[in-house]
Amino acid sequence: QSALTQPASVSGSPGQSITLSCTGTSSDVGNYNYVSWYQQLPGKAPKLMIYDVSHRPSGVSDRFSGSKSGNTASLTISGLQPDDEATYYCSSYTRSSTLGVFGGGTKLTVL
Amino acid sequence: EVQLVESGGGLVKPGGSLRLSCAASGFTFSSHTMNWVRQSPGKGLEWVASISGTSSYVFYADSVRGRFSISRDNANNSLHLQMNSLRGEDTAVYYCARDALLFDLWGRGTLVTVSS
Question: Strand locations in B26-91, DSSP E?
Answer without folding.
Answer: 34-39, 45-51, 58-60, 68-73, 78-83
